UniProtKB/TrEMBL annotation:
Boundaries of every Transcription elongation factor GreA/GreB N-terminal domain copy: 5-74
Organism: Pseudomonas cavernicola
Record keyword Ribonucleoprotein present: no
GO biological process: DNA-templated transcription elongation; regulation of DNA-templated transcription elongation
Pfam families listed in its UniProt record: GreA_GreB, GreA_GreB_N
Family matches, as SUPFAM superfamilies: FKBP-like, GreA transcript cleavage protein, N-terminal domain
Family to which the UniProt record says this protein belongs: Belongs to the GreA/GreB family.
Keywords: DNA-binding, Elongation factor, Protein biosynthesis, Transcription, Transcription regulation
All residue ranges annotated as the Transcription elongation factor GreA/GreB C-terminal domain in the record: 83-156
Protein purpose: Necessary for efficient RNA polymerase transcription elongation past template-encoded arresting sites. The arresting sites in DNA have the property of trapping a certain fraction of elongating RNA polymerases that pass through, resulting in locked ternary complexes. Cleavage of the nascent transcript by cleavage factors such as GreA or GreB allows the resumption of elongation from the new 3'terminus. GreA releases sequences of 2 to 3 nucleotides.
Protein name, UniProt field: Transcription elongation factor GreA
GO MF annotations in UniProt: DNA binding; RNA polymerase binding; translation elongation factor activity
């Protein structure tokens, strides 16, 4: 079975979501379904059907999270000695060779990626270009708008 890389923070976030769904949302939905059932005829009971539909979505999400956690390979980058090499979980500061514009990204699993927070998926073109490179290396990233060269300024294990 294929294992999917995930940071400690990413695994913790999924566990918290799973806990919230199973301990808070599930019981509330069960209560809502019971209340709606008491309203009478189930064929024309919109509250009942809405609650059942919501319950189905919650159960699907619970199964999805359980599957992701079961197949996760949780990597704690802080426990790995820093060598200046880009690996999964590291935070990388890069500079555009032409413009000297700097940006910082953390390389994370697919579920954790959020460009607004500076987290890019390990499968993204920029992450694939950076992996296994070292501080000072220049990498070429092919983007839809063309080829961009970046210099790796700093690699941190946060």
């Amino acid at each position: 079975m294929t294992k999917y890389p995930m940071t400690v923070r990413g695994a913790r976030a999924l566990e918290e979501e799973l806990n919230h769904l199973t301990k808070v949302v599930r019981p509330k939905l069960s209560q809502d379904i019971g209340t709606a059932r008491e309203l009478g005829d189930l064929k024309e009971n919109a509250e009942y059907h809405a609650a059942r539909e919501q319950q189905g979505m919650v159960e699907a999400r619970v199964r999805d999270i359980e599957g992701r956690l079961q197949n996760a390979q949780v990597i704690d980058v802080t426990a790995i000695p820093s060598t200046g090499k880009v690996i999964f979980g590291t935070t990388v500061e890069i500079a555009n060779v032409e413009t000297d514009d700097r940006v910082t990204y953390q390389i994370v699993g697919e579920d954790e990626a959020d460009i607004k927070l500076g987290k890019i998926s390990v499968g993204s073109p920029i992450a694939r270009a950076l992996i296994a490179k070292e501080e000072g290396d220049v990498v070429v990233v092919r983007t839809p708008s063309g080829v961009i060269e970046y210099e790796i300024v700093e690699v941190r294990h946060l």
